[in-house]
Amino acid sequence: MIRNILMVALGGAVGSMLRYLLACIWPATGCNSIPISTLVANVVGCLSIGFVGTLLQRTLGGNEQLRLLLCVGFCGGLTTLSTLVNESSCMAHNSQLLMAAIYLGISVALGFLALHCGTWLASRF
């Protein structure tokens, strides 16, 4: 159990640091524009979990330690539903309802597409 917690913590730390670096590259500009860093983090996380999850299952028989490190920890630390909802709420509170809806729609659609692209890519290995 302790080893599992450490694997999740290590992966989560790396994923969270990457998300922070993305926010440094594309800082939020307030509630009047699409937050690129959150969108990129969530799409990359979906692509990664599709790819890594499928690859682990196919090549390593679903290695639990790697799954905890990469899928639960890293992808969980990189992606962020709470920030997505908070940013969308900020847009809505600033009378940017259409932008909030577009942001939510794009985020979910691209995340879904990225997950399936990752799965498809991993199935080619």
Automatic annotation (TrEMBL):
<keyword id="KW-1003">Cell membrane</keyword>
<dbReference type="GO" id="GO:0140114">
    <property type="term" value="P:cellular detoxification of fluoride"/>
</dbReference>
<keyword id="KW-1133">Transmembrane helix</keyword>
<keyword id="KW-0407">Ion channel</keyword>
<feature type="transmembrane region" description="Helical">
    <location>
        <begin position="7"/>
        <end position="28"/>
    </location>
</feature>
<feature type="transmembrane region" description="Helical">
    <location>
        <begin position="68"/>
        <end position="85"/>
    </location>
</feature>
<dbReference type="GO" id="GO:0046872">
    <property type="term" value="F:metal ion binding"/>
</dbReference>
<keyword id="KW-0813">Transport</keyword>
<dbReference type="InterPro" id="IPR003691">
    <property type="entry name" value="FluC"/>
</dbReference>
<dbReference type="GO" id="GO:0005886">
    <property type="term" value="C:plasma membrane"/>
</dbReference>
<comment type="similarity">
    <text>Belongs to the fluoride channel Fluc/FEX (TC 1.A.43) family.</text>
</comment>
<dbReference type="GO" id="GO:0062054">
    <property type="term" value="F:fluoride channel activity"/>
</dbReference>
<keyword id="KW-0915">Sodium</keyword>
<comment type="function">
    <text>Fluoride-specific ion channel. Important for reducing fluoride concentration in the cell, thus reducing its toxicity.</text>
</comment>
<keyword id="KW-0812">Transmembrane</keyword>
<dbReference type="Pfam" id="PF02537">
    <property type="entry name" value="CRCB"/>
</dbReference>
<keyword id="KW-0479">Metal-binding</keyword>
<feature type="binding site">
    <location>
        <position position="79"/>
    </location>
    <ligand>
        <name>Na(+)</name>
    </ligand>
</feature>
<keyword id="KW-0997">Cell inner membrane</keyword>
<keyword id="KW-0472">Membrane</keyword>
<feature type="binding site">
    <location>
        <position position="76"/>
    </location>
    <ligand>
        <name>Na(+)</name>
    </ligand>
</feature>
<feature type="transmembrane region" description="Helical">
    <location>
        <begin position="97"/>
        <end position="122"/>
    </location>
</feature>
<keyword id="KW-0406">Ion transport</keyword>
<protein>
    <recommendedName>
        <fullName>Fluoride-specific ion channel FluC</fullName>
    </recommendedName>
</protein>
<feature type="transmembrane region" description="Helical">
    <location>
        <begin position="34"/>
        <end position="56"/>
    </location>
</feature>
